[in-house]
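Dear colleague,

As promised, here are the two records you asked about, laid out in our usual form so they can be pasted straight into your sheet.

NAME FIELD: protein one
SEQUENCE, THEN STRUCTURE:
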Amino acid sequence: MNTIYILMGVSGVGKTTLGKMLAEELCLSFYDADEYHSDANKKKMNAGLPLNDYDRESWLQSLSVAIRNWSNSNGAVLACSALKEKYRRKLISSPSVNVEWIYLYENFETIAKRIKLRKSHFFDPTLLKSQFETLEVPGYGIHIKVEDTPENSLKKIMKKINKPRIGLIGLGVMGKSLALNIAGKGYPVSVYNRQEGDKEKDIAKSFASSHDKDFRIPAYDDLKKFILELESPRNILIMVKAGSAVDAVIKNILPYLEEGDVILDGGNSHFKDTERRIAELQKKGLEYIGIGISGGEEGALKGPSIMPGGSEKAYKRIKPVLEAIAAKDKNGNACCSYIGTGSSGHYIKMVHNGIEYGEMQLIAEFYYFMRFYQKRSPEEISDIFSEWNVSEESYLLEITSHILKRKENEEYFIDKILDVAGQKGTGGWTTNSALELGVALDTITASVMARNISGLKLQKEKASELYGEWNTGLVDMSEKDLFAAYKSASIINHSIGFELLRMASKEYQWKLELSEIARIWTNGCIIRSSFMEELVEILGSKNEGHLLLSSDVIDHLNKRKKQFTTTISKSLEAGCPMPVSSAALNYFLNFIRGNSSANIIQAQRDYFGAHTYERTDKPRGEFFHTNWDN
């Protein structure tokens, strides 16, 4: 349900004037309750006769129906006297309607003077006394004394209802969807998009005009005017491509900003760029918040997962908007939470995308195996994925199932898509960060490299001719065994991603709450699943170590250990590439071994480089060197 703002009070207090201004500020439709009076009521009031409760009955009923309809739509602003408590109760006949009452008041003498100056209105000024006698001041809602100009009264209202205005720069797919999401939640938003020849001409104005039936969204192609018409302190959301484009936008808006303004970067910026920008802008008295946003176009419009990091003080100012537009978890709480200081928000989004890379590649591998090594049709595989998803509730499994059923001219559409996978960099950034922190990232790194090798299309086609197809024929493997392997690899991929977050939190002193991060990933984002729901509980049980040491995860993997190893080994033996699945298995086998081959590595390093080693028969921390030639 969307909010209905009702400005109430006696006639002449400014309900209509302020109501129209508030509606424009909130990008909502305005309605005047006077227009819902019957002609008979209007004639009676114009003749100086006060309305009785019988006169008001049909009027209140009509308004009540309208209020329910507005609430089910986008919300609205209504100017209505609503002088008595019983009238107000009749207006709000449904408890599910969310109403913000705004009581406007002034003394009798001031209002009487205003009414005498009004023209072309059916209300007889002599009725004002009866209205003051009828008025029952509400003990709730926002109370505003309209002793100042309408503009200043509006500012007081906006401050009370905590509706920060957002200025959004960049109307790409995500920018447009977020702007509509913000407007749809009743928050005022204005938009700007650069003018760049015919390709990017009048984008902002065209966007606003195409939605003007639902929202009032001020649109600009003049950057200076866009910035200066935002109320201070400003909140500016940048939705442009990561990298130099973000820096260019910041450089262009800086001359018009003032101390206390907040810049929000909702793109996939590299976390080190975010750290640099925070430091640079703090020197100028400006706040910079890096916001990870996941959910794609649909999520941005209907409710994404939101990961803000930076100044907590600045976040609190914009928190109502972000929580309003975010997806909701199973308990109805927003899938948005303050991540931590610095660039933590963008770092979390980067790792989210790394896990996403791994999950996408896993599904692709099992599709490929069933398609070409078991000769199943895309539709059969779609049905299998749907069956798996009954328990998994994985967004990626769900959409892959839909993809595989799509046909064009009776041919499977998947076969018309070139097998070269692109990437925007976040997967590679995750791998680089893991290398810097010394964290093993087998599955995510393997998924990045799988995309890289897919780009070698011409070489791969040539190699296929030279080596021939390495395919041993149909592989007899049950769907149950395949699912066990998929599930195991997926659990390990998640564990690897959360381990990177745990180590990054220590390194950068972010104090990340991993359970809360899992919670905001349970809806809205691309990697949402039933297992993510489980991770909220697992990570919340004071588990401060590696996820693979958690009893719940151990139970998961022990049940499927034999199927996991057998399935992956048979797949590889048959000639099917399984980069992420096999990386998960290798990581797992390495992790569960009490000892490893690393002693040979240490001996080699000491032999050629005198790098020293520790001994099994000596305390940890003591290092030794051997003269291997003697």
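NAME FIELD: protein two
SEQUENCE, THEN STRUCTURE:
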Amino acid sequence: MQIEVAEFGKMSQSGNSLLKLIQNNDLPILDLLVREAVQNSLDAGMKVEGHDSVHVDIGIKDVDVQGFSKHLDGITERLIEKFGDSPQKAIYIEDANTTGLTGSLDFKHSPNSNIFKLIYGISMAQETPGAGGSWGLGKTVYFRVGIGLVVYYSHILNEDGQFQHRLAVTLVENEKLPNTIIPEYNEKVPSGIAWWGQRVSPDSDDTIPITDETMIRDILHSLSIKPFEGERLGTKIIIPFIDEQQLLIKHEINPDENKPWETNVADYIGVAMQRWYAPRLANKKYSYGKFLDGHINGKRLDKDDFLPLFLELQLMYNAAAIGSKTNRYMVNDIQIRNYFEHNKVNNAGRVAYKKFTKKELDMLAPLNGPSPYTCVNEKNPLGEQNAPLMTYVRRPGMIINYETDGEWCKGLHATEENEYLVAIFVPNSNTKLMNQDDEITDLEAYLRKSEMADHTSWTDIIIKGKPFDIVEKIRSQVRRKIKASFENKEEVKDKQGLNTLARNVGKMLLPPTGFGRRASSRNRGGGTKSAANTSSRGNSFTILSQKYLDTGDLEVHFQMKLSKSVSAFTIELFIASEGGKISASDWESDDSVGTPFPAKITRISFPDTIGLFGRSAAQKSDRKVLHAVRIEKIPEPVECSGILSFNCTDPHVQVEMLMKPEGSVVNGQ
């Protein structure tokens, strides 16, 4: 491949200036990489039909230094001299079900094309409605991951309807440093920027991407990358010569907590993808287009692989985005007056929130999982008490930031050591502004315009010379709704027939040994308190003991007392939540969690009760899960013991058991 060295010119950039354009000092470089790379891929998949997801795979590959360097005229010897004596690695970012780097190979004929925006241009704003980028500067993070060398490969369908492979290489370095890689060019001042490709014409210094499939395959092979085959379209970005240890940052936020993902780049990227794209990752309920089908080193990131906090954030996002009634979380409408075309109660969006216990977040033994602050690399500013953890997101599904203090949290009460308040705000992106301009017509466009270049905050802006305070009002409303709901909430528990069981423990492969693997299907856990619930009519239901069986089922022994007037009774399983118990039908509703009920009865028996009970009927949910059993009884008082076994498929829930008596009058009265 032939070299093209950028020259200094009017209003031009240098390598040094490019590397400083988006110097975000708050986020680790791998977080910046994941945020930028995944968003670019999601934007590239917006207009591709026939797929319900965008495939994104990020991982690590080996580099054949000599095999790769031989293709880069002008720097071959320097690369071999610098890196040829030791094993080298590369980070790759692959997307599919996307458009690829389309447009004319010569950018002068299509200056707004994908290929120009990614490879040859800078500060080219993303113009697609609903896309993530708005400044066109985020891609500079690619040059900071390795030595500044980036390989762009794409398989596209060109304007002639023909499939075409394209590949180009860019190098951006600080030209002011000694021992630079880019060679001197015609005795001109070095710019720190170079490209490799094929000459536009024999008498031109300009280059365009190569299309020679044989050469492309050879270059990709030297980077351990497979080319796209058949009709599969997409882009692969490869960043060679990375230093894995320099990319990994050891956070000392909570030094006593285990953070296995900070010892391996691939594991860190897997957590970073959850951290920033929890609302869209593996979320088939994502309502603004295609969901994110994320992979790490070729292995799909399923919900079973999520850290508990990020799984909860996705479910909270769904509840807020859809506006569904749920007992699992609190969801409040956010309304802003005088700015939007209508005054619907949710014209600005909704906030979903919940106080989670350490148990619900897998923080207790034997799992000993990380705290929410550790998961998001934020400090708890309150010490012994826990500060609220607030986050917000717009249409592309990338979380903007996590806040533990400042304007989003001001005035919210701290929680005790054993619980954490987590909240997520989801805007009503389609709400139209009353005072629009050509670029800002709705709330989504307003928030997008308000973001800084690295997309880590929202701030109010000026439209047509008039300052707006929409973001400030949203924050104020979110704080007020959360504060009011907890201050007014009655701490009353339903005591009739309820017995909290031990949490179903579903992850036996503990970090770091089993980090990133699926949970084991063999569950273990401890016991709970015995609890007796007696009604005024003499009916009672008491948990005596419980234990896990070799099958993974939880076996519960109970004692039951029923009066003469009780003609039948039902024993039913529920999922506990802060807002109350969730039945199987509520759980499986499309407006709620929407998955099969996670607790299934596998056995129920009543030893030494011959002649006391009549017919029994299994009650199954719409998803065919056995969640309750109804049993008829003789018209005599009964006092007996029973055994119920159930299996739980979700390690992040608590299961409750309820006995409901029936009689000739309601509840046997």
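A couple of things worth noting about protein two: The longest helix spans residues 470-488. Residues 490-536, 665-669 have pLDDT under 50 and may be disordered.

Best,
R.
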